[in-house]
Amino acid sequence: MVDLFKTNLVIQKQSIPYRIRFENEAYRFSPEEGAADEKSFILKREHDSWVEATQLPPDLKNQAVEALEKYLLQQH
User: Fold this and answer.
1) pTM to 2 decimals?
2) Which residues pair with 17 in a beta bridge?
């Protein structure tokens, strides 16, 4: 498991800090301490599209994908 970056995601009009880690060929979004009510989720890149392990609200998935793509572009 490798820590990559941190970002804030807006969930129910509240900004929640998340830590993003890379593990098992997927990106795990885990809420920072103090945001225990929010759940972790995983996104994976498959066939040029982002796939979630469990269904996410479209707005949350869009925010997570945007944060990942911004991070990945900065790495090149």
Assistant:
1) 0.89
2) 8
